[in-house]
Specification:
The complex is a heterotetramer, with two copies of chain A and two copies of chain B. Chain A is an alpha/beta fold. In chain A, α6 packs across α7 and α7 packs parallel to α8. In chain B, β5 and β6 form a beta hairpin. In chain B, 47% of the residues are buried. The chains are: A alpha/beta, B alpha/beta. Chains in contact: A-B, A-C, B-D, C-D. Chains B and D meet through α2 of B and α2 of D. The complex binds flavin-adenine dinucleotide (FAD) (2 copies), flavin mononucleotide (FMN) (2 copies) and FE2/S2 (inorganic) cluster (2 copies).
């Protein structure tokens, strides 16, 4: 029997597997290395890095909702310098590609991180996060406006020749408008979706539960929304898509590929099962064998092309 | 330290007054490595729908038999499901996790509000010196274990209840006030508001004070930055920088 | 002990209870009357009615997702005439207020239904649905654009003096812009939210599962998103809000009130428990008694005003 | 008709070959009123997270004891949970719901593909005239009950399996082709593709044909318009206009 070929090219990044670690839940990778064989991953996208250290939002930062998770971490991170000196080195030899998620409050800040990461050994891609709902300025403010998207992506593009992913926000009326703006500004691939903006209220105190009032909703609850946005973006742009939002099973992975993603990332799913990564990959391979589809590339966007014809 | 994720087997389960559950699990690695103040994450099977794991302090260990015990209140969906596990069934467990209490000096006070007693009971049993446990509940029914369960030479246990139905009539802080003078150090776990006041009382008395904090958690291992608490050095992770903190580090901010 | 006062005024409609039946899941009410005491409800909002009969979308129309439900009913309905002759009469004596959800593909169609319902006995309010994601034309197309919202609401407003609710779509970048447009055009209250646009793919066939490809996501999965939009709208407009999205418990009801809703509606929740209505009301009363808050009105938007102070 | 929503008690449960479950419930109202072709909705308790109720055809009733039996395949989360209920536990049930099969004329064929056998077995037992049941499975292991369970005077049962491991070697449609000539009418339930072909065969043979359809459901009582199927009179609700339809009404549209 043929062995399924899981290789994909994500906007210039050659991946051994189409299953990636989404930015955030895995932190900078250290803690989960002990629980997962990272060489099973196509890449790890590390948590958002800004030019200077960010403190993040007040506690509490997490609230569980029905099949979902609200977080308001607020991109707490040690800043570019500390990332380069402390967090990156141990990641280099973990057997997978490294993509760095970058954030800023202004276009200049985005550009500064990008330029600081340009040419650094072991960094295979940048993911421009213009979609974090947990910031007062920057973040999502860029990702909900096509012009701002264009500006920030262009600015980052000028700083680096590393493959650029742009991470889109689902909190928009029409995802294709933003997707096209990012593509036009030079993105090599698009990541979608970031979290949906949401909140929860503690009925005992009568106040918003999260320290930051609002948070970003992730997890299985948002999968149908994410899938539709991937489907729509696939119909609008030519660059490859990295699909994510609520993946917890191989069947979820397949859905995203069929909808138009070239690869997928798992975020919140790691919390439900700290060893999820290898199970997803096995399940994907099993599905491909069962369906007689031996290249992941052939799964991508298949649902746009009439689906699978496996009738005898 | 390598985090250990494995399947623990429910050895025994006791549910008292419909509200408290003592769960003893066969979990050799956690039982051997677990220290007072550390906790484990229990994972709910996916047949119940996606659910975050639930953190529980280690209440007791039996290193020879490879057992750990947890003592918790049945509060919501997660603890209900955990309390529903049959003896003999398997449950995924990650841990032991987090920081532990330092060895208490002779004459240390261990102040527990409600279920905060779990890690302190473990500490009291393991400690090599005489310690005094102050355990305060709202009413006698809320005792999560029989006082006889917590005995060893040199261990003194004082109970209090707000309605006076057992022990001294008063709060944890009343009990603390009564015993603070003789104390060499304070170790405490319980509601945040209580911890905040206990910490200032210890500071006034000029004794060392360690607190075990709680926060909502997702990863439990320091990766997600979801469980932070404010400290004098900025936000720190309760799961991996804590849950035990020196009281002087913690910023209470008037928030309870 | 005082008995909590559940009366609220929703944009001119005096309701005995702040818990309503959301448009759609209850159909025209007939079937659920046998299972629920409708006099426990503040009002029933009946399923969307158009000027002419609509066939709706092809099957399958339902897919269950994690804590959610995707539907693509497509507003199948018998049309205004048949609604008035067959469906309305039996509803008149079911002991609760009646609000009619109205839909159209053009502004003229909206206006036609509104004028056809004006002055009809037993109709206490109209809910203008500019947010159905299951239509090719009309529906959500109006609710995602402030100018179109303004036009359609103005047109309906001219046809009738019945209290007007306008039902908003969550599939927008900024809900407050649409909320303000609807208020300015004469809405007496706002209903929010309608369903989030989403999809699911059948990995066996490799094709979208729903006959209509896309569907609207409802149920507990969307509650955090709904709650945030109610919170935001409450900060933007002066007219009262009817909050909905994923309500299945009294605690959910309370959250929506605290976030700024004057009343709430339950939709998908009725599927999980066909007798849900009375339980929600009992739970709300219990909470109010426990918290010493005796008027629902005092709960509304309390989370904006510092929460509940019940410390001894 | 007043819909009855009540708590049914699990009387007995049999699970065969890990895949099929026969559940007998104490549900007096449903047992007295339930007719062949009708179904019930089972509600999963909220501790498992929100889940839509699951529809199941009535497989058998014991009106004297107030029992109904359901026969289903364990396919996903809902059926797994239902199959996990202990004897004696309660489960919320709505029904009986939907339309029923008309009384079959003497010599009617009842064609079942897979679990479609559930409502037809009920019909075969209740019918007052001689009928022939054709029950096709993929292989012997997939028989959802022992053939001996389905006997009464005048009832003939023919089995088929695709791999020939039991009964005739062939599909449901092969079996139908063999018996169609003598048939007075066709009643069928099973995969949509099979129903579509069976319906055209019946039409060609010039006999009456009734089909029981399945669709995803939410309310089960005709309110939400979620479960429609296309018919010559437009979309109709499977839950309340059906599940039993005259074959001539149903538009198959090449969709399976
Ligand atoms: C390090 C650590 C150790 C813990 N040790 C113990 C222990 O030994 N015994 C014990 O009974 N409990 C302990 N807890 C608290 C325990 O984890 C929660 O009670 C449990 O997760 C509740 O889950 P649930 O699904 O039943 O409740 P939910 O449905 O999630 O919530 C029910 C109620 O509990 C409150 N709650 C939920 N999670 C927490 C939390 N993390 N902290 C405080 N309140 C919460 C909610 O506000 C709500 O009112 C510990 C928590 C942490 C972080
Ligand atoms: C009127 C009616 C009567 C039924 N009677 C029976 C019966 O007597 N015995 C029996 O075994 N089954 C019967 N079914 C089908 C049964 O309801 C489904 O198998 C069940 O709901 C699956 O639930 P789940 O959570 O286990 O599976 P899910 O996790 O929901 O799905 C598992 C698999 O089953 C398929 N599936 C789910 N729901 C349906 C459905 N409504 N129709 C067809 N396929 C579905 C899915 O595509 C998926 O492949 C009936 C359905 C209807 C509508
Ligand atoms: C705790 C947490 C932290 C996150 N941090 C980031 C981040 O730093 N940068 C980013 O682009 N996305 C971040 N995300 C969003 C995820 O990468 C992902 O887009 C989103 O959670 C949806 O996927 P999921 O449902 O699989 O988690 C974070 C998500 C969570 C839950
Ligand atoms: C089956 C179904 C049908 C619906 N039909 C309508 C409708 O006709 N008009 C409308 O405005 N909203 C309709 N809705 C949306 C609901 O009224 C409600 O806004 C949404 O489902 C969110 O609330 P919930 O999570 O409580 O269901 C429908 C929802 C469902 C699930
Ligand atoms: S729970 Fe993730 S860092 Fe503590
Ligand atoms: S399931 Fe609601 S109409 Fe049939």
């Amino acid at each position: 029997m043929e062995k399924p070929d899981l290789k994909v090219n994500l906007g210039g990044i050659a991946l051994e597997s189409p299953i990636l670690a989404a930015s955030g839940p895995f932190g900078y990778g250290h803690q989960y290395r002990e629980l997962n064989d990272f060489s099973q991953l196509g890449a790890i996208i590390v948590k958002g890095v800004s030019s200077e250290p960010w403190a993040g939002n007040p506690a509490p930062r997490l609230a569980e909702t029905a099949s979902g998770l609200l977080n308001s971490i607020g991109l707490q991170n040690p800043g570019l310098k500390s990332f380069l000196s402390d967090d990156l080195p141990p990641l280099r030899d973990c057997g997978t590609k490294i993509i760095v998620n970058i954030v800023g409050r202004t276009i200049e800040e985005y550009a500064a991180v990008a330029s600081g990461l340009d040419g650094i050994d072991g960094i295979n891609g940048l993911e421009v996060n213009i979609s974090c709902p947990n910031l007062k300025a920057g973040g999502m403010a860029f990702g909900t406006d096509p012009e701002a998207t264009h500006k920030v992506v262009s600015a980052v593009r000028q700083q680096t020749s590393i493959p650029l992913l742009v991470k889109l926000s689902p909190n928009v009326t029409d995802i294709t408008v933003i997707a096209l703006a990012a593509e036009d500004a030079g993105a090599d691939a698009l990541s979608l979706i970031n979290t949906l903006s949401g909140m929860t209220i503690d009925i005992e105190s009568g106040r918003p539960f999260l320290g930051n009032t609002f948070g970003g909703l992730s997890g299985p609850a948002i999968l149908p929304v994410a899938l539709k946005m991937v489907w729509q973006a696939a119909g609008a742009v030519k660059i490859p898509l990295l699909g994510m939002g609520g993946i917890t099973s191989a069947s979820d992975v397949v859905q995203f590929l069929l909808a138009g993603a070239s690869a997928v990332a798992v975020g919140t799913g790691i919390f439900y099962n700290p060893e999820i990564v290898s199970g997803l990959k096995e399940g994907l391979v099993e599905y491909m064998v069962r369906k007689n589809i031996y290249r992941v590339e052939d799964l991508t966007a298949l649902a746009h092309r009439g689906g699978i014809n496996d009738e005898q | 330290m390598v985090n250990s994720y494995s399947t623990a087997i429910v050895e025994t389960k006791e549910i008292t007054s419909d509200r408290y559950c003592k769960l003893t699990l066969k979990a050799p690695a956690a039982s051997v490595k677990g220290l007072p103040g550390q906790f484990v994450m229990l994972y709910l099977p996916s047949e119940y729908g996606p659910m975050l794991p639930r953190p529980f302090s280690i209440y007791a260990t039996d290193r020879e038999k490879g057992l750990i015990s947890l003592l918790f209140e049945i509060r919501g969906r997660g603890t209900e499901l955990v309390a529903g596990f049959d003896e003999g069934s398997g449950i995924k467990l990650l841990g032991p996790l987090g920081s532990c209490f330092p060895e208490p000096p002779p004459g240390a006070l261990l102040l527990a509000g409600g279920l905060g007693v779990a890690p302190l009971a473990f500490l009291a049993r393991r400690a090599k010196t005489p310690v005094t446990v102050l355990y305060a509940v709202q009413k006698a029914d809320n005792l999560a274990f029989q006082p006889e369960e917590l005995t060893r030479p040199g261990l003194i246990l004082h109970l209090a209840s707000e309605d006076g139905s057992i022990g001294y009539e008063g709060t944890a802080l009343d009990l603390l006030a009564m015993h603070l003078e003789q104390a060499s150090a304070l170790y405490s776990c319980g509601p945040r508001k209580m911890l905040s006041k206990a910490a200032s009382m210890a500071a006034k008395a000029g004794i060392e004070c360690f607190l075990s904090l709680e926060e909502r958690m997702a990863c439990g291992i320091g990766a997600c930055l979801g469980c932070v608490t404010e400290t004098v050095q900025g936000y720190k992770r309760v799961c991996s920088d804590g849950p035990v903190f020196a009281a002087g580090e913690v910023v209470f901010n008037g928030k309870a």
